[in-house]
UniProtKB/TrEMBL annotation, chain A:
Source organism, top-level taxon: Bacteria
Species lineage: Bacteria, Pseudomonadati, Pseudomonadota, Alphaproteobacteria, Rhodobacterales
SUPFAM superfamilies according to UniProt: Periplasmic binding protein-like II (SSF53850)
GO molecular function: ligand-gated monoatomic ion channel activity
Protein name, as recorded: Transporter substrate-binding domain-containing protein
GO CC terms in record: membrane
Signal peptide: 1-20
Start and end residues of each Solute-binding protein family 3/N-terminal domain: 22-235
UniProtKB/TrEMBL annotation, chain B:
The keyword Transmembrane helix is assigned to this record: yes
Membrane-traversing stretches: 29-50, 71-92, 139-164, 185-209, 249-270
Name under which the protein is recorded: ABC transporter permease subunit
Gene3D superfamilies assigned: MetI-like
Subcellular location: Cell membrane
Topology in the lipid bilayer: Multi-pass membrane protein
Amino acid sequence: MKKLLLATAALALSAGMASAETIRLGTEGAYEPWNYINDKGEVDGFERELGDELCKRTELTCEWVTNEWDSIIPNLVSGNYDAIIAGMSITAERAEVIDFTTNYTPPDPSAYLAMTPDVDVESAVISAQTSTIQASFVAEHGWTLVEFATPEETIAAVRNGEADAVLADKSYLAPFAAEEDDLVLLEREEQIGGGVGMGFRKSDTELKAKFDAAIQSMKDDGTLNALIAKWEVASTF
Amino acid sequence: MFNFCTDPDTLPKLEWFACYLTTGKHMGFYFSFGTVLLLLAITAPAALLFGFGGASAARARFLPLRWFGKAYISIVRGVPDIAFFLFFVIALDQGFEWMRHKVKCPDWDQPIRQGNDFVVCAQAKLPLGTAPQWVHETYGFSLAVLTFAIVFGAFSANVIYGAMRAVPKAQIETAEAYGMSRRQTFWRILVPQMWVFALPGLSNLWMVLIKATPLLFLLGVEDIVYWARNLGGTANPRFTDYPHADWRMWYFLALLVFYLLFTKVSELVLDRIMRRLSHGQDTAAGEAQRRAAGGPP
């Protein structure tokens, strides 16, 4: 009887351990609707729902961690968390340092938000968040660029006249244009980036493969498209 | 928090604010004040200890120890805080993990450095990948304390080093004439008397330390400035029950008041300490105290 009890206890313990394989997901928490901190103080948004669903499909327990955008890649590489899920576009430059999963949103145009619809972006001052594809895009074209650490500040810069327009993902800017009377989206859009994917350490190939499969399964059964439509983050597949 | 908070749109101003200011997000903000105060409470004595150690090493008679002390002071003082925080903490963390890896997984055959990645076996991870969230947070916090202590320790080492040299030579000579050993002179004469010279410099450092806490977020510790920025930013009705415009100004105003109050209290306390330390000292302040007490001119 005693042996039986012990055996069941051991079994329960090992079963508990098997299901408790935890991975940590790093996000920024300041980029609505992709990821943000809700009123309760928890990570919320499109990527929260997506990440939780992916973790269910890969049978992993996931913890959410917020990290500043600037240091989000160094902290992944050094092992502070196991994956980046923070609206990060897949680019060749980043892919040299980390591995991306297959994209979970299609490549979407970036948009400009300005005070007036007649801004000529090529001669204007453009604000963008540091180390984003938009910032490198403006820099590559040799236009005038001012960079800020958070997306919120890039918009504040347009409001107070420091910049003429902000270049960012359209899904981030659209709610501002809809909500505020003084801000409009420009007609011009830029096709940059290869869609958004999760980032993993290059050595974590097994983990990445698991998430690749989970994303693919969500693409196949249409749940991913439904999520994208719900949060209005991108066009659907 | 309150029962009437279920539908914030319909509430009058006062109740709306009562609900708004007690959301979970705001609780995180209030909690971060505690984090910052705790950090200061641990870091200040730790940095003082590092400083004292560094200064003692820098004036040691044993040459390698003296080199070590001087190198610590000049290298750490010369590196920008933000670079130190980005580089050193990661290096420190990897150093710990490397040591644990060597001990715990001796038969690991893959290289630890794979391109940009730093790969150690799962048992060597610090904290363990399976550890609950609070362990990760505490670990990050401890790394932050250690890094702050090392950085501010170097600055205070320089201050204390200078203060040790400022103690009047006559005091040391008298101690030697009484037959005290080097160690006795150091602990009984030099150390008690140097604080009065060190305090102005140390109080400066304390003030700088109070305001350096936003560096915490580089390490993933959420401090008050992070929350103020996050909470003050434009809140779009799509993502919150409490939409508002860009209120960062008000949040930063609150931080301003907090910092001003905090520095004011610090100043009062430091003034008191200075008065005590000056007592009986051969300095202008000590002299003034002696005369005020009715001593001969």
